[in-house]
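Sample intake sheet
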Amino acid sequence: MRVLHLVKTTQGAIWALKQMKELVDLNVDVHVALPSYSGKASLYEQVGVKVHILDTDLSLKLVWNMASKLKAFRKLLRARSEEHTSELQSLRRI
């Protein structure tokens, strides 16, 4: 199983980090999209979560930025999906 969490800040969200660690301990492939590599970002990697830097703040106050943010998000999902498909094809060959 693969999980992608979207986290709005790297300053808090310790509950999310704890939840992701539990999933990693259960052998889930966990990814997190963080707005920057600052604050507690390194803690995610320390517990085995794959970190992706992506600004997911879809504020309606900044509507003109939304299209580029959604495009970046789709690109991240597509990359993870292609990676997953490749892994499944490898398993089928075994």
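Comment: The two ends are 19 Å apart (CA to CA). Residues 63-93 form the longest helix (31 residues).
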